Amino acid sequence: MADCLGIGFLADKKRLNEVLDQARTFALAKGICMQSKQQDGTMLTQHFPFTLFPSVVPRTCFQEAVDCMLDFNTLIHKVAHDHDFLENSFKNVLEADEFTQGLWKIYTQVREEGYAQPLSLGLFRNDFMMDVQDPDHVQIKQVEINTIAAGAGSIASLLVHLHRLTLDTTGKRYDKSEVPDNDAPLGTAWGLLKAWDLYGRKQAVILFVVRETESNIFDQRHLEFTVLSLNSEVRVLRRTYWDIYNGASLTEDKRLLIDGDEVAVVYLRAGYAPHDFPTLKEWDARLKLERSLAIKCPSIQYHLAGLKKIQQELTLPGSVEQFIQDPAAVRRIRATFVKQYSLDLGPEGDKGMEFGKADPDLYVLKPQREGGGHNLYGNDIREFLETHQNSKERDAYILMERIFPKAHKNYLVSPGRPFALSDVTSELGIFGVYIGSATEEKMNMQCGHMLRTKLLGTDEGGLCSGHACLDSPFLVNDEL
Ligand code: ADP
Ligand code: MG
After folding, report:
1. Ligand 1, atom 3, residue with closest C-alpha
2. Pocket around ligand 1: residues whose beta carbon is below 6 Å from it?
3. Burial class for 200, CB neighbours closer than 10 Å (0-12, 13-18, 19+)
4. How many angstroms from the chain centroid is the CA of residue 434?
5. How far apart are CA 440 and CA 265, in angstroms?
6. Tens place of pLDDT for every residue, the chain, 480 residues?
């Protein structure tokens, strides 16, 4: 990639180290940072792992990923409001996966009780890789869409400026539109503020539900500061599920009060992993939020609609068409799909089992989990499938065709990793905002992006799980 950008002199180690030093300081100065807990319990602030230069992304791929965001927003919203589709999709998963069961229980209770709040707020991130299996044509293929705690947009927006600086310092001439501005935090903040406005009570607060210890705190705080900079009347509170269990209550008309403040919008940056719910008390807190009149991001049905099982079901013939009538929108969505298979006990699931066992390197095995580090690859897939041939546990997984992105070159600047020009691959995330009820759309927009880059040969791609480095796209007209 560095060659591709025409940065020839980086063979000069001294110059390279100057650029590195400047970039690291810039990252710290601008808050492109994360925290980690040390053995003695103190928190250490470091810069986020990042690439020294932006990575080349074909403009057409970037545009296609942007162009289908409104379609995906609508699709997820409609899926979330189709009870039969959700129930059918999850019926076998529910018998095999306790965490999905916990979410489903909340969904069922709130649905039976009647939703206090008809509106949901979606702050989604749609993730893609640029597949090069067809050597003549690079294609964006969806890895997954995230409907809960879709992060890194704020940090990614800051990184654009770091990358323009490293290009400037190395004497690379470019047009600003080639390293495009990134309005992810602005769009996300607009979504939160629009929901706050729709709630209709000026004194009510926006509640960020967070973990006690959070590595991605700067990303969250930057979003909070963006909200406050757009509207100084609003207050943002941060609370854990434990705080909510102890300090939150519902009034008779289901207003959510936390330490005396009424909550207009609940924004979940925690609650997507089983360890967010160590006891029934945290589950109780999640239920309390969901039963309330506050607008939830995501509502429980949005959360469910983002699980891997739904994404597999949506690839089946007729599924997308059930929700989206516009044939062009269906085409845009479907063009990003690779094949996915159910592994449910029975003849249909057996087909997926056979594919996975025969060619494990062509697939990824995914459970109903978020946040990185849960998927299986290669021989681990074969082993898992052979061990679970007759076990109900296989119903909790889906099998997805593997996407093969082209390798390029960049420098990864990551604490604890050697600094060298490396072979890497990238993954592009596009952010979207949606607000609507079962019958009405209030907001549907696309805002900003995020690129992350990992060493070639690394299977997983999580930022916070330490597998990937934050990056920015350098848009080029030619294919890779
Ligand atoms: P999570 O919810 O844990 O983020 P993902 O579906 O995003 O789960 O998978 C985690 C990572 O695994 C992705 O960021 C990507 O790097 C890799 N991955 C997932 N699906 C595929 C796929 N079909 N082909 C290649 N890599 C994949
Ligand atoms: Mg992911």
Report:
1. 372
2. 127, 143-144, 364, 366, 369-372, 374-375, 400, 402-403, 427, 460-462
3. exposed
4. 15
5. 18
6. 445 575 655 678 898 999 999 999 999 999 999 998 898 989 999 999 999 999 999 999 999 999 999 999 999 999 999 999 999 999 999 999 999 999 999 999 999 999 999 999 999 999 999 999 987 889 999 999 999 999 999 999 999 999 999 999 998 999 999 999 999 999 999 999 999 999 999 999 999 999 999 999 999 999 999 999 999 999 999 999 999 999 999 999 999 999 999 999 999 999 999 999 999 999 999 999 999 999 999 999 999 999 999 999 999 999 999 999 999 999 999 999 999 999 999 999 999 999 999 999 999 999 999 988 899 999 999 999 999 999 999 999 999 999 999 899 999 999 878 898 999 999 999 999 999 999 999 999 999 999 999 999 988 777 776 789 999 999 999 765
- Point out the ligand 1 atom lying closest to the alpha carbon of residue 373: 3
pTM: 0.96
Q: Which residue puts its alpha carbon closest to atom 17 of ligand 1?
A: 460
Burial profile 412-421: b = 16 or more Cβ within 10 angstroms, e = fewer:
bbbeeeeeeb
Kindly report whether the peptide bond that precedes residue 298 is cis, defined as omega within 30 degrees of 0: yes
Query: Contact, 373 vs 366, CB < 8 A?
Result: no
Which residue has the least CA distance to atom 2 on ligand 1? 370
Cα of 243 from ligand 1 centre, angstroms:
32
Q: Which amino acid is at 434?
A: Y
Segment 112-169, tens digit of pLDDT: 999 999 999 999 999 999 999 987 889 999 999 999 999 999 999 999 999 999 999 9
Question: What atom in ligand 1 is closest to the CA of residue 467?
Answer: 16
CA of 305 to the centre of ligand 2 (A): 15
Q: Which CATH number applies to 341-399?
A: 3.30.1490.50
Distance 290 CA to ligand 2 centre (A): 24
Q: Which atom of ligand 1 is nearest to the CA of 374?
A: 3
Q: 59 near 475, Cβ under 8 Å?
A: yes
* Closest ligand 1 atom to Cα of 370: 2
Q: Name residue, tokens 């002199």.
A: 9
Average pLDDT score, the chain: 95
Q: Which atom of ligand 1 is nearest to the CA of 141?
A: 23
- Rounded CA-CA distance 67/80 in Å is 22
Q: In the block, which residue shows the tokens 């995914």?
A: 366
- Ligand 1 centre from 400 Cα, in Å? 10
CA-nearest of 206, 214, 379 to 295 is 206
Domain ranges, ordered by start, for the chain? 8-337+410-476, 341-399
